[in-house]
Amino acid sequence: MESVSRWPLLQKAFARFGRPVVVVDLETTGGNLYQDRVTEVALLRFDGQSVCRYEWLVNPCKPIPEFVAQLTGISDEMVRMAPLFAEIALQLLPLLRGAVVVAHNSRFDYTFLRHEFRRAGIDFAAPALCTVQLSRRLYPEFYKHNLDSIIERNAIAVENRHRAMTDVLALSDYLEHSLREKNTEDWDNYCRSLMNPKMLPNWVTDALAAQIYALPDSEGVLVWFDAFGKAQAVVALEKAYSETAEMLHGKKVPLYLKAAASVRFIPALGSLHSVWLKAQAMREYGIRPPERVVSKPTAFSTVRFSPDEHGVLQARIVPLDNGSRAVRPYGLFIHKKAAKRALNSWALENRLCPDALNILPVANGKGVPCPVQALGQCDGACRTEDGIEAQNGRIRELAHLLPVADWGRAHEVEITETDGLSGKSITLRCAGGAIAMPDGGWYFDDSLPALLKMKFRRERESVKIIA
């Protein structure tokens, strides 16, 4: 246990957070967040009453590069007999879960911790405070805010620089020093505004907070239940804890969040997989999809084919509402004008009768001869029984070729999502902007177009065009 007298101001400042605070530093085999591994963990845990010190060497299960060994002083020999991260995970987790993680460049340390816990089969997320950002806010007059510059600027005494505990102690000394120089209220406000992820707000019950603090910060679906155990909402998330904490801090917190008593998390392998799982969970719990907001700038449309009283398939441009459907959408359009243009071009290219499809301009009116027939481009056979049957067959055969917004020439695709840590993957089929479900149906919501557009633009290697 460390003496509180070394950081009296820091102890008081951290106590204002209402949660334990852990100042942490990691040493690793390198900077790749997915391929490199932790070699050392050091932390000081401030719990409001005392300050406890913990440190471990960790076997990374891979060689430590020579330049890293020279920088940190940690060699392969030193970690050969050290425990694996999975072997210290159950000791480490209670020290970190529900606490505020403070680190210099917290994205690095926080992400490495999350990934190591996931490899050990444990979900982990926490509020995190980056002291690089805090230093920039406290001392904007300085250009450099790396730990070396801070140590030199403030004449902080250190030994074995770049070992984890040395850096933790130096960082804590710096924070204590900053509290002597700066207004405590400002210091506290800066910390709270910079936390990413955030702490949960005080109005969240202890029981619910414990469940939310146990969430990971990865993709998945969160089901919200009220005090009677009835599911109130199903939400697909890319960073489960971070996004949940952000929602709870919102200016307009939804009623289901205010009434929530418990949650269930369903892990996913990627963002599209999250939507797929959300659709299944909504059906399982009887949750209706959110209403389509007509006033939104983008209200998606599709084409629906249905027979008239004579059995002639006619095309209608209809809103593509959120929810499940038995039949896949034919085409996806950002606005009705685009849908009309695309529908006319599709009919023309495939020599389909626009009159039978009921897509001629309204100005033509009923009883007015079909302009295509008047131009001699159609012999009227499309109105015979055989012609109707032939046209209907071609519509069914060609409907899937109606364009999908932001998909280029693709109409149906398979998208593979792979978890970067476990290597597990899933392949999902999408068509017309919707995603195929296990029961043979389809699901669409207005989050899918942007998500699928991103897959085409940034993860093209994961997209296989089927049609």
UniProtKB/TrEMBL annotation:
<comment type="function">
    <text>DNA polymerase III is a complex, multichain enzyme responsible for most of the replicative synthesis in bacteria. The epsilon subunit contain the editing function and is a proofreading 3'-5' exonuclease.</text>
</comment>
<keyword id="KW-0269">Exonuclease</keyword>
<protein>
    <submittedName>
        <fullName>DNA polymerase III subunit epsilon</fullName>
    </submittedName>
</protein>
<dbReference type="GO" id="GO:0003676">
    <property type="term" value="F:nucleic acid binding"/>
</dbReference>
<keyword id="KW-0378">Hydrolase</keyword>
<dbReference type="InterPro" id="IPR013520">
    <property type="entry name" value="Ribonucl_H"/>
</dbReference>
<dbReference type="Pfam" id="PF00929">
    <property type="entry name" value="RNase_T"/>
</dbReference>
<dbReference type="InterPro" id="IPR012337">
    <property type="entry name" value="RNaseH-like_sf"/>
</dbReference>
<feature type="domain" description="Exonuclease">
    <location>
        <begin position="20"/>
        <end position="184"/>
    </location>
</feature>
<dbReference type="GO" id="GO:0008408">
    <property type="term" value="F:3'-5' exonuclease activity"/>
</dbReference>
<dbReference type="GO" id="GO:0005829">
    <property type="term" value="C:cytosol"/>
</dbReference>
<dbReference type="InterPro" id="IPR036397">
    <property type="entry name" value="RNaseH_sf"/>
</dbReference>
<dbReference type="GO" id="GO:0045004">
    <property type="term" value="P:DNA replication proofreading"/>
</dbReference>
<comment type="subunit">
    <text>DNA polymerase III contains a core (composed of alpha, epsilon and theta chains) that associates with a tau subunit. This core dimerizes to form the POLIII' complex. PolIII' associates with the gamma complex (composed of gamma, delta, delta', psi and chi chains) and with the beta chain to form the complete DNA polymerase III complex.</text>
</comment>
<keyword id="KW-0540">Nuclease</keyword>
